[in-house]
Amino acid sequence: MTRPYTEFTETFAAADGTQLPLHVFAPQGEARAALLLFHGGGWMIGSPAMFFPQAKALAQAGILTASAGYRLIGAGADSPLDCMADTEIADHLFRTIAADAGLATISVGGGSAGGQLALSLAASPARHYDSLVLFNPALDACCEGAAIAQLLKVTPQQARAFSPLHHVRPGMPPAVMFHGTDDQLVPITLARRFRQLMTDTGTECELVEFPGVGHGFFNHDPNGNSAYHTVLARTQAYLLRTSGE
After folding, report:
1. Which of 84, 119, 146, 212 is 20 to 30 A distant from 165 in Cα terms?
2. Of 31, 149, 164, 47, which Cα lies nearest the Cα of 101?
3. What's the CA gap between 157 and 79, in Å, rounded?
4. pTM for the full predicted model
């Protein structure tokens, strides 16, 4: 059953004082779960609007959803580490909104660079999440992804600091990861390795592979994209299951 929802935007201050948006899509009535999303774009481009279609659809299913902005490299951020600092503030704000909606915990997710940002939050044992929802997340910038470090002009040590593949720990939240087998930016081999690392620590990690498609296959397309609808339906089901619904 489709539920009505409302949209509103909160703002929060980045470390340098930049005002950033948190776009919230709130179902009317009792929320069933909550999800905070971060857009992709290589930490250099993109906007929260990337996830507006998913956020609207999830809100209609009773899931409180937000899509957050963060400083981009060349526009206030020097590296993904600055983007990560912004996500911590967005996370705090969204938890307050979720608590006001009667939800004690949230899930977090994102696409590509946004997936890396979601994973950076989940890597901290100080934060609890119901689950992780990852759309071809950036997983490694220092080893197999060394080209990313070169592009961002960071040292291997700095790149390792924001490479989720090297920060898997016991006790991370369960995760679902959607990935194309022909992804040229984040090879499917990295996704499979990440799943194995999570499994080895005793953490559930479901990898849903989409044969023959590349990076960004999950995005909404007004002309139609069957993968978008498949990913959306599985995302909704996963969020409701891991939230205890």
Report:
1. 212
2. 31
3. 13
4. 0.96
